[in-house]
Design a protein that fits this description.
Oligomer: single chain
CATH class of the domain at 61-198 and 274-280: Alpha Beta
Distance between the termini: 49 Å
CATH topology of the domain at 61-198 and 274-280: Tetrahydropterin Synthase, Chain A
Number of helices: 11
Largest sheet: 3 strands, antiparallel
Shape: elongated
Structural class: alpha+beta
Number of strands: 10
CATH superfamily of the domain at 61-198 and 274-280: Elongation factor Ts, dimerisation domain
Order of helices and strands: HHHEEHHHEEHEEEHHHEEHE
């Protein structure tokens, strides 16, 4: 038991340094005889224990942050998860997610593991993102973690966040043309709404093509069409799938008289995409 008197100001000071609750701070100072450094370690160990005890919990809430670099050459999306909508809407939680995204843009980690190993400033010192997540798990009492980290690079990368941090999109344009920011945002909104499977038909994987053809053939046979017509009609249905589900071939939502490819050509001749990424919360 502590022989040192723990004052309210001491408790408040530790709370300001760590962000932990008042009762947790008082207990930490009591257990460590008023030693602030030891109390901080005590709170961090508590966070690790809470994190370990909640590994089997579902953390399907959270936020998705999309961010592009200042020069527009690189963009990232991170999904930071928690257990409840209440925490996901907390300003501090959203600010933490934004800090992680900004750190990823600036430091260019190649993988999620490398991102978790990057250091950021905390109330106390600099620490690895993964360690800060453990600390926050202890303070908040919910399982927290980064579940997704994706990167897009290009001549002009545009980032878009949709639906109160529920979905993030990156588009990589082939050129930094005049009007590229606005065009990139328009197409990012299209991607958010229409969820294309690839940029064009050449980007659709063989498994998806095979599945779409099989579905089409079964539909045609169910309609009673002769077997000799099945192959020809199924190819037509596959072409319809390409039109509906590949980005450049989709009708442009803001002007259905044009495809997305045709819209881009009005911005600059030959303008296209080299990549896009779409991350939906919990998907």
């Amino acid at each position: 038991m502590s022989t040192v008197t723990i004052s309210a100001s001491d408790v408040n000071k530790l709370r300001q340094q760590t962000g932990a609750g008042m009762m947790d701070c008082k207990k930490a100072l009591t257990e460590t005889n008023g030693d602030f450094e030891a109390a901080i370690d005590f709170l961090r160990k508590k966070g690790a224990k809470v994190a370990a005890s909640r590994q089997d919990r579902e953390s399907n809430e959270g936020v998705v942050i999309a961010r592009a670099s200042v020069d527009g050459k690189r963009g990232v999306i991170i999904e930071l998860n928690c257990e409840t909508d209440f925490v996901a809407k907390n300003a501090e939680f959203i600010a933490f997610a934004n800090l992680i995204a900004n750190t990823a843009v600036e430091n260019k980690p190649a993988t999620l593991e490398e991102l978790n190993d990057l250091e950021i400033d905390t109330e106390v010192n600099r620490a690895k993102i993964g360690d800060v997540i453990i600390d926050k798990t202890g303070k908040i009492g919910e399982k927290i973690g980064i579940s997704k980290y994706v990167v897009v690079e290009g001549e002009k990368v545009v980032a878009y966040i949709h639906g109160n941090y529920r979905l993030g999109v990156l588009v990589g344009l082939s050129a930094n043309a005049a009007g590229a920011d606005e065009a990139g945002k328009d197409v990012a909104m299209q991607i958010a709404a229409m969820n294309p499977v690839a940029i064009d038909k050449d980007g659709v994987d063989a498994t998806t093509i095979e599945r779409e053809l099989e579905i089409a053939k079964e539909q045609i046979r169910a309609e009673g069409k002769p077997e000799e017509m099945v192959e020809k009609i199924s190819v037509g249905k596959l072409n319809k799938f390409y039109k509906d589900s590949t980005l450049l071939n989709q009708e442009f939502v803001k002007d259905p008289s044009k495809s997305v490819a045709q819209f881009l050509s009005t911005v600059e001749k030959g303008l296209t995409f080299n990549a896009f990424k779409r991350v939906a919360l919990g998907a």
